[in-house]
Design a protein that fits this description.
By secondary structure, the chain is of the alpha/beta class. It has 2 domains: 3-235, Rossmann fold (3-Layer(aba) Sandwich), CATH 3.40.50; 240-291. Helices cover 39% and strands 16% of the residues. The chain contains 5 helices and 9 strands, in the order ββαββαββαββαβα. Strands 1, 2, 3, 4, 6, 7 and 8 form a 7-stranded mixed β-sheet that branches. A two-stranded antiparallel sheet has the order 5-9. α3 (141-153) links the parallel β6 (127-133) and β7 (162-167). The longest helix is centred in the C-terminal third of the chain and has 54 residues, at 237-290. The chain starts with a strand and ends in an 18-residue tail after the last helix.
C-alpha cells in the first residue's frame, strides 16, 4: 500500500537513518542502478564517492556531500530527497545525516533533530530504514544512545514499519546481534563493495567477485522494494502529538522546578531566621550573666472588676 498522490499515482516515503560510514549514501547509489538499469561497467552515480563522480544530475542536481575522502565524517549534511518512479508509483528516499559522527554528541543531536523535521515534513511515512554495519557484533555506545533517544521519540505504531539493512556482509557472514526494541523487523543483507574501490584498479578476479556480489545486492534490493510496496503508510501526526505532549511535560517540569526553587528559598530564609533567633537568645543570656542581672518571672492574675 502507498499514499495516494492523485487518482492515477501513489507515493511511498522512506527515511534512511544510520551511523556515519555504514552505507546510507551507497544504498541510494545501488537504488539508482536498480531503477536506471545500471551495471558494474555502466555505474549510475547519484551521490559522488571517493572514486566516482555523480553522473545522474536528473535525480539530484545539487549535493550536500562533504569529506568524501574521510570515512569517519558524515558526508550528508542535510536530509536529501531522491525520487524514483515505477509506472505510477513514486518512491521517495530521504538520505539523512549520519549519526555517531566525529563531531560528537552535539552534532548527533543536531542531526537527530534534522531527521525528525524531515519525517514531519510529509503527512505519511511508509518506512524507517535503519542501516547498520553487519560486521560489528554490537552497537557502539554512541549509536546505542542515539537509537535509545530515537526510540523515546517515536510511537509504537512505527515499529511495524522499521526495516533493517545490514551492510558489508551476507546472510551467512553477518556478525550482528539483534536490537532489543525491534521486534523481528524485515532484515536485508548487502555486500555493498562496488562503490568502495576504484574501478580502474579492478583486476579480472576482483571484477568477478564484485559481479557476484552485485547480482546478489540487486536481487536483495528487488525484494526490498517489494516489501516497501506492501507496507501500510503511517500518519506522522502521531509524532507531532508526541512532541506536543513532550513540550507540555517540559513546561510542567519547568514550573515545578521554579516552585521547588521558591520553596527552597523560603526554607533557607526560615533557617536563617531561626539561626538569628538562637544567636539573639544566646547573646541575651550571655549579657545577663555577665552583668549579674537576675530575672524573675512574675505571674500576673488579671481579675475582672465590676462596679457594684
Amino acid at each position: 500500500m502507498a499514499t495516494i498522490i492523485d487518482d492515477s499515482s501513489t507515493e511511498i516515503n522512506i527515511v534512511i537513518i544510520g551511523e556515519t560510514g555504514t552505507g546510507k549514501s551507497t544504498l541510494i547509489n545501488y537504488l539508482t542502478n536498480l531503477f536506471y538499469d545500471g551495471s558494474l561497467t555502466n555505474l549510475k552515480i547519484a551521490i559522488p564517492t571517493r572514486y566516482l563522480k555523480s553522473n545522474m544530475s536528473s535525480i539530484m542536481p545539487e549535493h550536500h556531500e562533504n569529506y568524501l575522502n574521510d570515512i569517519t565524517r558524515c558526508k550528508t549534511s542535510q536530509c536529501t530527497k531522491y525520487q524514483f518512479k515505477i509506472q505510477q508509483v513514486y518512491f521517495n528516499f530521504f538520505d539523512t545525516p549520519g549519526i555517531n559522527d566525529t563531531g560528537g554528541y552535539l552534532t548527533d543531536n543536531e542531526n537527530l533533530n534534522k531527521i525528525f523535521e524531515c519525517i514531519q515534513s510529509f503527512d505519511y511515512l511508509t518506512a524507517l530504514v535503519l542501516i547498520l554495519n553487519g560486521t560489528q557484533a554490537r552497537l557502539t555506545i554512541n549509536i546505542k544512545n542515539v537509537l535509545e533517544r530515537f526510540h523515546d521519540r517515536i510511537p509504537d505504531i512505527f515499529y511495524s514499519n522499521i526495516i533493517l539493512i545490514l551492510t558489508n556482509c551476507n546472510s551467512y557472514t553477518v556478525n550482528f546481534e539483534s536490537i532489543k526494541f525491534l521486534n523481528h523487523p524485515p532484515i536485508f543483507y548487502m555486500q555493498n563493495s562496488a562503490f568502495s574501490s576504484d574501478p580502474h584498479q579492478w583486476s579480472e578476479q576482483t571484477y568477478e567477485i564484485l559481479q557476484h556480489d552485485w547480482n546478489i545486492s540487486i536481487q536483495t534490493l528487488n525484494d526490498f522494494i517489494k516489501t516497501l510496496v506492501l507496507l501500510t503508510p503511517i500518519s506522522t501526526k502521531s509524532l507531532l502529538d508526541i512532541d506536543n505532549d513532550r513540550n507540555i511535560i517540559r513546561s510542567v517540569l519547568h514550573e515545578s522546578r521554579l516552585m521547588i526553587m521558591e520553596l527552597q528559598q523560603i526554607e533557607d530564609e526560615l533557617i536563617a531566621l531561626e539561626q538569628a533567633s538562637n544567636i539573639y537568645s544566646e547573646n541575651i543570656e550571655k549579657y545577663t550573666m555577665e552583668n549579674g542581672i537576675q530575672t524573675k518571672t512574675v505571674l500576673v492574675n488579671i481579675f475582672e472588676y465590676r462596679n457594684s
